[in-house]
Structures are given as structure tokens and as C-alpha cells.
Amino acid sequence: MSNMKDEHKIIIATVAAVMSIWAIDAAFGAFVMHGGKFSDLLLSVRPNQPFFRILLTLSFLAFGIIVARISARRSRAEELLKRHSAAIETSMEGIAIINRDGEYAYVNQAFASINGYADPGELIGKTCEFGFDEQDVEPMEEILPALQKNGAWRGELLAKRKNGSVYFQEASMTMQEDGGRVCIIRDITWRKRHEEWLRRSERFLNTIFNSIHDPFCIFDSHFRIIRANESYAELKNRSVDELIGKKCHKALYNNDSVCEGCVVEKSFHSADPCAKDKIVVLRDGTEMWMELFTYPILDEDGKVSHVMEYTRDVTARKKIEDEKQRLIEKLEYLSRTDVLTGLMNRRALTDSLIYEMDRARRYGSELSIILCDIDNFKEINDTCGHDAGDRALQTIAAALKTILRKADIAGRYGGDEFMLILPETSVKGAEKIADKILAVVRNAEMSFTEDKSVRLSLSIGLSGLEADSDTTDSLIKRTDDAMYASKEGGRDRVSTVKPYPLFP
After folding, report:
1. Count of CB atoms situated within 10 Å of the CB of 153
2. Dihedral sign from CA coordinates of 31, 34, 37, 43
3. So what's the pLDDT on residue 43?
């Protein structure tokens, strides 16, 4: 706006000057040259004077306009220069102008401060090599040819401050027409140190990563494998290059979606570590039990950005666990099983009877038990030997197994006695089962030699549960009494002690 006012002032002054010259010339011609009167000032004009005055007016006016334009441009240039100078002086980046002799012709405050000088004037007239050690001058000498060839250069240098300390400097230079250079610098020491810290951290992490011999990998939120060690690739029958950047379900199993039961997906959703065991088949067909652990990696917002998966071979542990389980099962079996006959032993029979009595009372169902004693078992042992007695026990056990239903329970109660527990069976139903047992045993003949054989028979007693009054001991005692009644009655028979009705 001030530029426009100056331009208008110059034009007005020019017009005023033209009018004044016009008036003076007219007065001079009228009074001096012609001795005229005041009236001749306007009326007495020579023929060529109007054209001369018009030409003079236009010339002065054009001159005024030109001067006004030049003045306005100069004012704008000065204003722009002030703005640029203010911007340069307040810039956080160091800016310097170097003349063709390599000397600082101008430096701003930031340039001086970066180099450790309080006053920019301390650098004026000094060469640009002044801020570098001797070993760092050689790179500077290589910059000038590149600058002259390309007109510009940008790179990093190791510079020296006034106090002798060094810092990393990022510099950019532009060649000027007069052979000088404009140089812009910034201190990047913190950035370089941070980059070095990151490189050391990365080397540290790489060392840890590569030292893990068990399979290890990292997934991003799209289930892409972004890091994997050789052990993981070998486990998956792939190379590392085949896995990196690929979605795990596609690269490993050719699935378009995440695998069912994926623990990586579980960690993404729960943000918690997860684990599971699975069988992996190696290239040679060997099966291995692997234990998978997943650990979520959270971003600054607390969301899961990545998941680590660590795999450990637990085949040996699984074998030990399986052997331990088989041993436990075997011990459990032995603790509940009569080794000679393969039926339940007395302890297991007692536990089963207690359970079935409770169940019968709970549901109001019937329950019967049978006790069997081998007839003349002592004579078999004394006459044929204990091996024959063992064979007799095994024969009876095999016969019982052919008679029993799926829900029935049989065991060796002790010596030559067997017990059968018959859930949801009335006394009448138990009698039918007992008769079948007698028939099967009668047909079971044991031969020892061509001229020596033994026929087996049983004395059987049975009884039903009296739900309101029976205990385990009372039920067994009553059934045992029935069995002895069969022995006293001539053996090879069934005797029954009937319970009172469950519902009167």
C-alpha cells in the first residue's frame, strides 16, 4: 500500500512540475519576448508553441511514471529483502553465503550457533574449511567438483565446533553464477546417535533371535510372517524366503482363511499368551509333538499389533507322560483286578457294590448280588496240585464272562469265591442268571492228562437289596448265608434269600 502511495505522489509531483513549466514558459514568452500584456498570456501564442508544450508535458509525464514505477519496484524489492532477511535470521537451519574464494561472506545466527559461535561476525572472512579437522578436509575437497558439475550437492559431514567438539552435520550447497555458494546446514548428531542406537538394538535383537535354536517366528495383524528363523522354516518344510511376507495359513497349508483352533488368532483376540500341543510331521515322515506358545506384542494404544510364536519339541516329554499314564492305568488296573482271573478283586467289588447300592436307593431301582463258591476246591488242589486250582479259577472266570450282561459286574471275592453285582435286576432275574451259570460251569470240564479230568460245579447264593435297611455288610452276609445253604443242601445248586418288597 505504501508503494502505491509513493507512486501516486511521484505522478502528482510530475504533473505539477509540468504545469509549472508550462506557466513559466507562457509568461516568459508573453512579457519578455513580446513585451505583451497579461491578456497575451493566453491569447498570444505562436503556432509551434502548443505542440512543443504538449510534447514537453508528455515527456515529463512519461518520465514521472517511469520514475514512479522504478521507485515502487525498489520499495517492493527492499520489503521482500527485509522479509527474506528476517526469515533467514530466524531460521533454525544454519545458512551461509560463501564467496568464490571459499570465504564466509554471510552467516546467520543459527549457522554461528550450530558451530559454537555467539556472533556470526566471528566467521566472516574465514574459509569454510575452518570448521573441519584435517582428516575431514579431504571430503570437502571432493565436494567442489561435484558442485561445479551438478550445480548442487547434499550430504553428511563430520564438523568441528569452536570449542573443538565434533558433531554430525547435514549440508546442502547450491552453486551461484558468480562462483560463490549458498550453504545450508543442520546438526544431526542426535539423529545419528539415535540411528546408531537403533542399529545396536537391531544387532542385539538379531543376535538373540539367531541364538534361538527352537522354531520362532513373528506374525503381523494380517497373519503375515514378518520374521522367522531357520529352525521354524525347517520345521515347516520351507525356506525362510518362502515364508517371509506370506500369510501363514496360505504359505503352510494353502488355506484361504485362518486355521481352526489357531493360537495366534486367539492371542490377537484375547491379548493374552496362549499355548497348545500339536503333532507335526517332518519331511522324513517322523511325527513330533510340538508345544506352541504365543505372546502378544502391544502398540502404544494397547492393541495387539504382532504376535510371537515359540515352538518347542516336547516329544520326549510326551513319551514320558504317556508312559507315566500307562503306568498309572496299569497300577490302577492291578489295584482293582485279580491277576489270576482278570476279574475285579475284592476291593474293587466292594467299591462297586457301595456305588450301585447308592444308585439303587437314589432311583428306586432293584439290585441283586450273587456269591459263587467252587465245590470241592480243596480236593482239586490236594489231588491235582495248585496249578489245577488256578486253572479251575480261570475256567470259572471265563464262564462268568460269557454269561454276564454289559451292566453286570463280576469279580473274585476271595479264595475260590466269586461275586456278581447285578444292577436293576430283581431276585427272580438273578435266579435265571444263576441257573445259566450253573449250566455253563457243568459243561466246563478240565483235563490234565488223557486219563485224568475234573468236572466243576458251584454252590450259589443270591439275595436282593432291602433298600430301607441293608448295609453293604448285611447284604453280603445274607447272600453268603444263602451260598452256604447251597453247600449244605448238596452243592451244585442255587439258594435265595428274598428281600422284603421295596414298595409295600
Report:
1. 20
2. negative
3. 45
Q: Does pLDDT of 66 surpass 60? A: yes
Res. 442 pLDDT band, cuts 50 70 90? confident
Q: Where does 279-373 have alpha helices with state H? A: 315-336, 346-363
Last residue of a domain, one of 161, 192, 223: 192
Same structural domain, 178 and 259: no
Number of domains comprising the chain = 4
Whether residue 228 sits in one domain with residue 344: no
Cβ pair 219, 305 in contact under 8 A: no
397 with 418: CB under 8 angstroms?
Answer: yes
Q: How far apart are CA 447 and CA 391, in angstroms?
A: 10
pLDDT of residue 502: 44
The DSSP output letter for 405 is -
| Domain span including residue 12 | 2-88
Q: How many other C-beta atoms can be found within 10 angstroms of the C-beta atom of residue 278?
A: 12
List, in sequence order, every residue forming a beta bridge with 159; answer none if it has no partner: 167
For 444, the grid coordinates are 466246563
- Residue 144 and residue 78 share a domain: no
Q: How many CB atoms lie within 10 A of CB 310?
A: 17
Residue 206 belongs to a domain: no
Q: Does a structural domain hold residue 205?
A: no
Residue 361 pLDDT class (50, 70, 90 cuts): very high
Give 177-220 pLDDT, tens digit per residue: 888 888 998 999 998 889 888 888 888 877 877 778 888 899 99
Q: Are 372 and 437 in contact (CB under 8 A)?
A: yes
pLDDT at 15: 62
Question: Are 296 and 343 contained in the same domain?
Answer: no
Tell me which long-range contacts 50-54 makes (C-beta under 8 A, separation of at least 24). 53/22, 53/25
Is pLDDT of 358 > 90?
Answer: yes
3-state SS, 42-110, equals HHCCCCCHHHHHHHHHHHHHHHHHHHHHHHHHHHHHHHHHHHHHHHHHHCCCEEEEECCCCEEEEECHH
CB atoms within 10 A of CB 352: 17
| HSE-up of residue 197 (Cα within 13 Å, Cβ side) | 6
Tell which residue, 352, 357, 359, 375, has the closest CA to residue 493: 375
Distance of CA 355 to the CA centre of its chain: 50
Q: Which long-range contacts (CB under 8 A, 24 or more apart) does 132-135 make?
A: 132/157, 132/158, 132/159, 132/160, 133/158, 133/160, 133/166
Q: Is residue 286 part of a domain?
A: yes
